[in-house]
Specification:
By secondary structure, this protein is mostly helical. It is built from three helices and no strands. Helix 1 runs antiparallel to helix 2 and helix 1 runs parallel beside helix 3.
């Protein structure tokens, strides 16, 4: 019987947490006022993959915040 080794599980978790943190921060910059908080939540949701992908879908479909022009 083939199983997943602890090393493979560790790489999977590290990869998913890295992916979720980076993508959450990028989407958080475009769609919220608090991108660091969004990235932290994305990091912690990566430990439960179904929740992480639901969180990612919510961020993707959230409306972008309006851009503020510095030209006045």
């Amino acid at each position: 019987m083939m199983g997943i080794s602890p090393t493979q599980l560790m790489f999977l978790i590290v990869g998913l947490t890295t992916f979720m943190t980076i993508v959450s921060f990028y989407l958080g910059r475009r769609k919220t006022e608090t991108p660091i908080l969004v990235a932290v939540i994305g990091f912690f949701t990566a430990f439960i993959p179904p929740i992480a992908f639901i969180y990612l879908l919510i961020l993707v479909f959230k409306r972008d915040i309006p851009k503020s022009d510095s030209n006045g």
